[in-house]
């Protein structure tokens, strides 16, 4: 008969080492879930803010008047989000497809095709004061002047 005591002990030691390595992964997974939930809430808040901003301009408030009241154009939100990620991590926020988004926006005279773009921003495509769309701050300079 084969003595499995040595094999069992080795397996137990390996499991113990793995358990210590798995704890940070559990924490990482929980933190990612927290971030996803926060991004869902942020997306809803940004959409609400953009709609309210658009409604304000539709009844005659100018962008300058709203800025004086400290209500920035919704396109500024992508810039703020990027700064927040940079401050929190010490690294610049990743912008997936930002070049493709800019190219699509430029080809359509400042209007992003469709209702939203997958451009890395939790806000997606946000209407500006002139009701065009700016995705991920691609034409932020033009929109905020």
Description of the molecule:
By secondary structure, the chain is mainly alpha-helical. The protein has one domain. The protein contains 5 helices and 2 strands, in the order ααααββα. The protein has a two-stranded antiparallel ribbon. The longest helix has 54 residues, at 5-58. It starts with a helix and ends with a helix. The model is unreliable at 98-123 and 131-145 (pLDDT under 50).
Question: What is the gist of this entry?
Answer:
This protein has 145 residues and is mostly helical. It has helices at residues 5-58, 63-68, 76-89, 98-107, 140-143; strands at residues 125-127, 133-135.
List the helices and strands and how they pair.
Elements: H1 5-58, H2 63-68, H3 76-89, H4 98-107, E1 125-127, E2 133-135, H5 140-143
Antiparallel strand pairs: 1-2
Order of strands across the main sheet: 1-2
Contiguous runs where pLDDT drops below 50 for at least 5 residues: 98-123, 131-145
Straight-line N-to-C gap: 84 Å
Radius of gyration: 24 Å
Shape: rod-shaped
What is the multimeric organization of the chains shown? single chain
Number of domains: 1
* Estimated structural class: mainly alpha
Tell me the total number of β-strands: 2
Features of the shown structure:
145 residues, mainly alpha, two-stranded antiparallel ribbon, rod-shaped
């Amino acid at each position: 008969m084969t003595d499995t005591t040595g094999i069992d002990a080795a397996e137990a030691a390996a499991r113990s080492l793995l358990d210590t390595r798995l704890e940070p992964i559990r924490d990482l997974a929980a933190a990612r879930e927290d971030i996803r939930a926060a991004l869902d809430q942020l997306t809803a808040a940004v959409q609400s803010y953009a709609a309210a901003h658009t409604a304000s301009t539709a009844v005659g408030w100018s962008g300058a008047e709203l800025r004086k009241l400290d209500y920035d154009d919704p396109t500024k939100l992508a810039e703020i989000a990027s700064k927040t990620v940079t401050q929190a991590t010490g690294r610049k926020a990743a912008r997936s497809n930002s070049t493709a988004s800019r190219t699509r926006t430029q080809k359509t005279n400042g209007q992003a095709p469709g209702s939203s773009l997958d451009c890395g921003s939790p806000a997606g495509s946000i209407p500006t004061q002139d009701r065009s769309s700016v995705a991920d701050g691609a034409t932020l300079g033009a929109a905020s002047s």
